[in-house]
Amino acid sequence: MAALTLFVFSFLASTTIAIEDFQNTQFTDKEERQFYFHGYFHEIFTGPNNTTTTAVSPNPDFPNFGEISIFDVPLWGYLNGTNLIARCQGAGIQSDQNTLGWHLSFNIVFELPALKGSTLMVMGRAPQLTSTREFAIVGGTGVFSLATGQMYGRRLSSPDENELWIEFKILGYYTPMKKPDW
Predict the structure, then answer these.
(1) How far is 110 from 93, CA to CA, in rounded Å?
(2) How far apart are CA 40 and CA 74, in angstroms?
(3) Which terminus of the chain is more solvent-facing, meaning fewer CB atoms within 10 Å of its CB: N or C?
(4) Separation of alpha carbons 37 and 137, rounded Å
């Protein structure tokens, strides 16, 4: 019992010191800022330039249910595939037994020079057979620390069934943070 009491006291003391250190250091400027991006997600399913691959094939008893796909898809500034804004890197899980509904979890890794390496973390559901979709921005790094917001998508007509173009509008907030001095 004495050992447990000593452990709890040590944990609380170290936690208190860490909280006090954090409160005494100004890590944020406490000013929330808005951001907005408009772009085009271009997914290619087959061929030498494919951007998506199936990591786990579906169960034959439930077609498509349980499929897991991994993707690294460019987010372009223009529909013609020019002006690379970012790369969407993550995974999709076909998690709906009744319809083609995907759970997506991915990072938007920015390529623009002023944002290079900054990320937005995105999660949401993408019903495959609908034209619109909505995702939550659940975090961010770099320029986009403490990001929250929404990502709206609209499926566009694609040249063939092996490609998918989606127009995106990304709106959100972030709070700039100072990096710790190690």
Answers:
(1) 24
(2) 8
(3) C
(4) 13
